[in-house]
Design a protein that fits this description.
It is a single chain. By secondary structure, the chain is α+β, with helices and mostly antiparallel strands. It has one domain: Metal Binding Protein, Guanine Nucleotide Exchange Factor, Chain A. It is built from 2 helices and 9 strands, in the order ααβββββββββ. The chain has a 6-stranded antiparallel β-sheet. A 3-stranded antiparallel β-sheet has the order 2-1-9, with no helix packed on it. The radius of gyration is 16 Å and the shape is globular. The N and C termini lie far apart (55 Å). Bound molecules: zinc ion. The site of zinc ion has 8 residues, from loops.
Length: 146
């Protein structure tokens, strides 16, 4: 079977082995980690937040802001096409669910009370993301003058 993209989408068995139980619950069963419990809500390191399941880059640390909610929050995705938005009517609320468009992993929800310029608030679970830190010096390969 050939996938539409070249991103590798792991099987459920692989995921159970690779992910923590919380990461599995959040991404595969649309769970939510406890506020202020995740790895990234208070992380300010520069880098790219990728999907924990398939590795697709989803958010830049530049677009991360302190929402006070206890979940990592972003005002925009790197590429809107990489984040699928789905109307979610569960829990007697109407919310917008965000999923990884590549592998379908649940990421969190999107609200419209975020900061400008977008006004969007991507309220994500740390358990759905993996931060790939920027390398400290991109010009390290440049040889010193000599
Ligand atoms: Zn994914």
């Amino acid at each position: 079977m050939v996938a539409m993209t070249d991103a590798k989408i792991p099987t459920e068995e692989e995921l159970r082995e690779r992910l923590t139980p919380l990461q599995f619950e959040v991404t595969q069963h649309a769970g939510t980690e406890r506020a202020f419990s995740g790895e990234y809500w208070d992380n300010h390191d520069p880098g790219v937040y990728s999907c924990i399941v398939c590795g697709t880059p989803l958010f830049r640390s530049d677009a991360k802001f302190d929402s006070g909610t206890g979940w990592p929050s972003f005002w925009e995705a790197i590429d809107p096409a990489k984040v699928e938005l789905i109307e979610d009517r569960s829990h007697f609320m109407r919310r917008t669910e965000a999923r990884c468009a590549t592998c379908g992993a649940h990421l969190g929800h999107v609200f419209n009370d975020g900061p400008q310029p977008t006004g969007d608030r991507f309220c994500m679970n740390s358990a759905s993301l993996r931060l790939e830190p920027d390398s400290p010096a991109d010009d390290a390969e440049t040889p010193a003058e000599g």
